[in-house]
Amino acid sequence: MAGLGREEGVQVPVALQLLSMASFRWLWPGNGLALMGFQIRNMGQAWITLDLTGGSQFWVGVVNGTPAITIMLFSILGGVAADRLPRQRILILTRMTLAWLAFATAFLPAAQLLAIWMLIAFIGIQFVFFFLVALYFGAFAAVSLLNLPQEEPRPPRPILGDLVEGLKYVAKTPQVAWLMLMASLLIFAGMYLPMVLVYARDVLKVGPQGFGYLEAVFGVGSLVGLASIAWMGGVRRKGPVIVVAATTVGASMIVFVVWIIYPMTLPAQFVIGVGAAFWITSVTTVLQTTVPDEMRGRVMGVYFMVIQLMGFGWIIGGYMAQTLGNVNAVLIGGFAFMGLNLLAYVSSKSIREIN
């Protein structure tokens, strides 16, 4: 392992090192397909909600934000399961479940049973979910082909005891606790999300195709950010990266709503995608690489529970847009996300010293 990353004296990019691992080559598309399905679902449900409610920002926020409540309730239990059960088996079961739910939900619009309450509980529109079926089954197939070493069986322990132990670890480890606090700030970034749809439909008037381009540009920005991180092999001083990325995201959110010209909103979306990739990857990487293996599942469970506050940002942003106006809602979210990330960096030595 001493020569890892070098071939005949030449430094091999970390991205190529990862792709040389057979299991990673299956895990990468498996996660990619699942995330693609998640994004497509959000786009479809948001657009049809706006149409059904006559342009209500609040209902767009409610429909897209409500699933976060369920995820928050089960994330920490999922973390406990990940520390107790074979992780590949959990991935396979969850991917298969998502595929069958998408398949069942695809028939709701065909049966003309679609209503707002059903969007909250069984989200989507017909063509979106038939496509999701293929994506989720693809994700299931990919994770099924992972060739991972056999995990040693772990002695049975009380679930509640495991849960409490994980929460205590998060609370008593300064760096982890501060990162969780910073992750909670995604509630302010989430306030911007319903505005993309509202602007596409009612302000920029570019229709579903224009909305799709806006989301696609964000995705391209995220890919560029992730590819840059992978090619560089990570950044040693991740504390400043987190703050700069948060500032980039917050400032670009403000640019998006202030410059109401479609060609100007596209680069703003791209920059948000790049900044978001650097922010979420930096925070997640620090947690994944510094937490002991026996605690990792529970810590990441808490982390994914916390970042679901972005879903509440959908709800708050939709409500504030309807009461205070679209621009004011995003200004509050953008400045709060930038300012509080900077405040956390200044206040926490453990964040400044992340290396």
Which features would summarize this protein structure in a list?
355 residues; mainly alpha; 19 helices; Growth Hormone, Chain: A
In brief:
This protein has helices at 14-19, 22-52, 57-65, 67-84, 87-105, 107-110, 116-121, 126-144, 159-172, 174-184, 186-189, 193-203, 207-232, 238-258, 262-290, 293-307, 309-324, 326-347, 349-352, and strands at residues 6-7, 10-11.
Question: How does this model look, in words?
Answer:
This protein has 355 residues and is mainly alpha-helical. It has a single domain, classed as Growth Hormone, Chain: A (Up-down Bundle). Helix content is 80%, strand content 1%. It has helices at residues 14-19, 22-52, 57-65, 67-84, 87-105, 107-110, 116-121, 126-144, 159-172, 174-184, 186-189, 193-203, 207-232, 238-258, 262-290, 293-307, 309-324, 326-347, 349-352, and strands spanning 6-7, 10-11. The protein has a two-stranded antiparallel ribbon. Strand 1 (6-7) and strand 2 (10-11) form a beta hairpin. 40% of the residues are buried. Mean pLDDT is 75; it is low at 1-10 and 109-126.
Number of helices: 19
Radius of gyration: 21 Å
Q: What is the CATH topology descriptor?
A: Growth Hormone, Chain: A
Query: What would you call the structural class?
Result: mainly alpha
* CATH-assigned homologous superfamily: MFS general substrate transporter like domains
Work out the helicity level. Answer: over 70%
Measured distance between first and last alpha carbons: 22 Å
Secondary structure tally: strands: 2
Write the layout of secondary structure elements.
Elements: E1 6-7, E2 10-11, H1 14-19, H2 22-52, H3 57-65, H4 67-84, H5 87-105, H6 107-110, H7 116-121, H8 126-144, H9 159-172, H10 174-184, H11 186-189, H12 193-203, H13 207-232, H14 238-258, H15 262-290, H16 293-307, H17 309-324, H18 326-347, H19 349-352
Antiparallel strand pairs: 1-2
